[in-house]
Design goal:
TIM Barrel, binds pyridoxal-5'-phosphate, 19 strands, Lyase, Ornithine Decarboxylase, Chain A, domain 1
Length: 412
């Protein structure tokens, strides 16, 4: 991959025609180090957040050897790059064929489940294997997170003890409990609360867990969402673990996705047309900007132009390149008033659930990848400021700005 100091150097050299993912592996390395230094837990990277090979390779080079995978293609991807990585198939609902291939072809031994049927399916598909690590996923409250993940997966606290007991009896290997507090969790104490619920379920089941897996949910910085320091999350996790009824040998695991990769990537897009306060970009809802469209997150933006720009900022919305009218990103995105066709716009904090979500709809979706040295637009790791300044609105734009600030979504 080619390296540019800054996005403007790329624009000057060859005005790219397709969207470009500007990637910073050094930031993934810093994030991986932070988790290893500050959290007394094994780290399993949740591959779905960003399955780019450079991400997996950077994590491997920086001490992360375990991966949370949810499909055979994700398993093949990681196995191809790291033949001896530890893989955990943490999707609570898997096909029999996928379980069988994972176990027999790829050496996967760690499986999650949230029902008695899934437990029976896993045992069946592995020919009653005795060496399984079975992790029971429990549903927990997701107050304080941008994306609630408890509606789809996880067994209710009331029913969890019977499943924990069944899992314990089903394997001669390890048994664990997991949960996910919701993605982009803004409240550190959510972890302590979930761990206390997990502990109660284990006590009621009358079993000890070999593994307590606290899932993902660790936040990044977006406009209007400046989370508490990551140290506060580590404190909550350590306090929660200390209060749990567990053995001395019980392992603590975590599965961060977003927090390891969000800062690492920005997307360079080209303005193909302007109509008033609407910019028509070459990337959108079906490309790398899924969350900007579907969750209406007002990601931070910068104009990349070889030349001076109007110092006055104006609120813009973006349209993507496809012919679908839902291919719209409402923002507001603050850019110089004179932004025009042919300009480039860099959209920051796109490393998690950005490039990972792109489709080929309508013939779009090609994205090039280059390395850049420039710092991210914001950082949880002290590499840039920890909040994204919101421009001072002019009269008339105030309403849009306050709407963006109050935004809290409960989806995914
Ligand atoms: C998506 C997912 C994660 C990662 O969540 P983040 O909020 O990105 O940290 C971790 N574990 C499981 C089981 C997931 O589905």
């Amino acid at each position: 991959m080619h390296t540019y100091h800054a996005p403007l150097d790329l624009v000057r050299e060859r005005s790219p025609e397709c969207p470009v993912a500007l990637v910073r592996p050094g930031i993934v390395a810093v994030a991986a180090r932070w988790f290893q230094d500050k959290l007394k837990a094994d780290i399993l990277y949740a591959v779905k957040a960003n399955p780019s090979p450079w991400v997996i390779e950077t994590l491997l080079a920086n001490g992360v050897r375990s991966f949370d995978v949810a499909s055979i293609p994700e398993i093949e991807l990681v196995r191809g790059l790291a033949p001896d990585a530890r893989l955990a198939f943490m999707h609570p609902v898997k096909s029999r064929v996928a379980i069988r291939q994972a176990y027999f072809d790829h050496g996967v031994r760690i499986f999650s489940l949230d029902s008695h049927d899934e437990l029976a399916k896993i045992l069946d598909a592995t020919d009653q294997a005795k060496d399984l690590t079975l992790i029971v996923r429990m549903a927990v409250a997701s107050h304080g997170s941008a994306y609630d993940l408890s509606g789809k997966f996880g067994i209710d606290a009331d029913a969890a003890p019977a499943l924990l007991l069944a899992a314990r009896r089903a394997t001669e290997g390890l048994m664990g409990i997991s949960f996910h507090v919701g993605s982009q969790c803004m409240r550190p104490t959510a972890y302590q609360g979930a761990m206390s619920a997990a502990s109660r379920a284990l006590v009621r089941a009358g079993v000890f867990a070999d593994i307590v897996d606290i899932g993902g949910g660790f936040p990044s910085v977006y406009p209007g969402m400046a989370p508490p320091a990551l140290e506060d999350y580590a404190d909550s996790v350590h306090r929660g673990f200390a209060e749990m009824m567990v053995h001395e040998t019980t392992e603590l695991w975590c599965e961060p996705g977003r927090a390891l990769v969000a800062e690492s990537t920005s997307i360079l897009t080209k303005v193909e047309a302007r109509k008033g306060d609407a910019l028509y970009l070459n990337d959108g809802a079906y490309g790398n900007l899924f969350d900007a469209a579907h969750s209406k997150w007002p990601f931070p933006v910068k104009l990349v132009r070889d030349g001076a720009a109007d110092p006055t900022l104006k609120a813009f919305k973006f349209f993507g390149p496809t012919c679908d009218s839902i291919d719209v990103m409402p923002g507001p995105f603050w850019l110089p008033e004179d932004v025009r066709e042919g300009d480039y716009v860099e959209i920051g904090m796109m490393g998690a659930y950005g490039t990972a979500m792109a489709t080929r709809f309508n013939g779009y979706g090609d994205t090039e990848t280059v390395l850049v040295d420039e710092a991210p637009m914001a950082s949880m790791y002290g590499l840039a400021r920890r909040s994204i300044p919101t421009p001072r609105p002019e009269i008339g734009a105030v309403v849009r700005l306050s709407r963006a600030r109050g935004k809290k979504r409960r989806r995914r």
